[in-house]
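4.2 Preliminary Data

To establish feasibility before requesting continued support, the project team ran the inverse folding procedure on a target of 470 residues. The structure was first converted into the token representation described in Section 3, and no sequence information of any kind was made available to the design step. The complete token record follows.
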């Protein structure tokens, strides 16, 4: 009964388990002959691994990883409610994977930074010094003012109130669309204020370097979230009046929501590149050496070394991205991989959304010579002259799906059914009976969401074929 839920929960648990394993693997000390030890991704002298401060930090890290894993199970609770809607279940899994990957990266970056700070404090340097200091004389840029969020909030709240009060032809989809936009806008505002108060990242021993690099990050990211909220409000306002001026199809509404949900992800990747480029320009202004080693290139949560021409380096346990984001080749490959995954998942989701939120159309052509079926990617047709018999049945169909889609609400596509062999099935569970159409080489089973619609289809088939109903 809950097969889809079991499959999706299993996939989610595998993904969360892999991230947990990757994070815990970084807490195991790795020692290579002739090289220092590595713990939490930080390179340490062998004798420093057993330092009480290090062991206490690693123990706390492990506990945090397990707490995060158990906390990551909470988003799985609503999955049984999506059993009848595979598209929403898949969307849930995609966003769950993104959440788990982002959470794992954030935790790894945070604890890597803590151990690295301890290493710097005790001067446990294992490699050659790296030139990474700077002379900053200009005033660091300020973060964007929160007042820039006000127009977006006013548009979102106004749209939501209008959707609640308006008696439009779209029914529940109008407040759903407006409510989703309001929730997204509030999310942008939360990210904006979080970015203003984000913990500072250490780039070198020079406080001016850290102040400048963190200020650039705050300015660009707060500007990004404020600008994204404004652009999103404008686009949603236009879509709102386009979609709900007349009664829209549900798949059009959900397609618009999905497209507007993917846009921030791509924009975030772009602004991340802008932030790194600005910080790279700052770090290139100085030639004074600071006491650090190659660990400094992993402080941003991934490898970022403008002095290394390689686009990819050896992976470090705990880190999920080993592309050198300071090189054009590394950035291109990483962003191409992310964009490819998002486009692939988005295409699948759009396909499933159309099946879940549109009704299959089964109708005869104007001359009654063909039965045309429009079923969200499983379109098909057959000639009424080929029909050998018509029957009505409520018997449960059982068999194997060989090229179709099914949920508890519908079955579309090619099936191999017991007692019938190769068959085409287009049925809805909400109708307790279906029409069985015998063709020379296969059976076709048809029903629509209501008995009245199915009875009307049966009458049209009888008139077109002239056959009695068995």
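Position-by-position output of the design step:
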């Amino acid at each position: 009964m809950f097969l889809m839920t079991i499959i999706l929960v299993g996939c989610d648990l595998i993904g969360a388990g892999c991230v947990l394993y990757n994070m815990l693997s970084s807490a195991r000390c790795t020692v290579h002959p002739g090289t220092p030890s590595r713990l939490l991704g930080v390179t340490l002298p062998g004798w420093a691994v057993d330092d009480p401060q290090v062991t206490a930090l690693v123990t706390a890290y492990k506990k945090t990883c397990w707490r995060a894993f158990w906390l990551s199970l909470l988003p799985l609770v609503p999955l049984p409610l999506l059993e009848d809607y595979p598209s929403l279940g898949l969307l849930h899994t995609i966003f769950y994977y993104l959440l788990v990957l982002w959470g794992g990266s954030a935790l790894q970056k945070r604890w890597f930074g803590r151990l690295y700070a301890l290493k710097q404090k005790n001067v446990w340097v294992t490699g050659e010094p790296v030139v990474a200091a700077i002379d900053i004389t200009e005033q660091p840029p300020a973060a964007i003012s929160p007042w820039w969020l006000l127009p977006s909030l006013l548009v979102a709240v106004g749209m939501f109130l209008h959707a609640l009060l308006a008696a439009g032809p779209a029914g529940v989809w109008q407040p759903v669309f407006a409510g989703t936009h309001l929730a997204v806008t509030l999310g942008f505002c939360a990210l904006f204020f979080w970015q203003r108060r984000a913990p500072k990242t250490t780039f070198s021993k020079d406080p001016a370097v850290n102040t400048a690099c963190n200020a650039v990050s705050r300015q660009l990211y707060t500007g990004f979230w404020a600008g994204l909220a404004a652009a999103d409000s404008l686009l949603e306002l236009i879509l709102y009046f386009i979609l709900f001026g007349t009664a829209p199809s549900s798949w059009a509404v959900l397609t618009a929501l999905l497209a507007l949900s993917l846009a921030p992800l791509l924009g975030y990747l772009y602004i991340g590149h802008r932030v790194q480029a600005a910080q790279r320009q700052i770090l290139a202004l100085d030639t004074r050496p600071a006491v650090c080693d190659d660990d400094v290139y992993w402080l941003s949560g991934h490898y970022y070394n403008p002095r290394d021409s390689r686009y990819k380096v050896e992976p470090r346990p705990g880190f999920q991205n080993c592309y050198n984001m300071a090189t054009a080749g590394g950035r291109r490959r990483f962003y191409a991989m992310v964009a490819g995954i998002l486009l692939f998942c988005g295409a699948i989701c759009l396909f499933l959304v159309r099946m879940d939120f549109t009704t299959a159309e089964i109708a005869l052509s104007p001359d009654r010579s063909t039965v045309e079926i429009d079923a969200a990617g499983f379109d098909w047709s057959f000639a009424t002259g080929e029909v050998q018999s018509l029957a009505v049945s409520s018997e449960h169909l059982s068999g194997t799906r060989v090229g179709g889609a099914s949920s508890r609400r519908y079955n579309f596509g090619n099936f191999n059914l017991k007692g019938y062999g190769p068959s085409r099935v287009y049925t809805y569970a909400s109708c307790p009976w279906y029409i069985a159409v015998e063709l020379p080489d296969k059976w076709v089973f048809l029903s629509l969401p209501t008995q009245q619609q199915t009875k009307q289809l049966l009458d049209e088939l009888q008139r077109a074929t002239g056959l009695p109903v068995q």
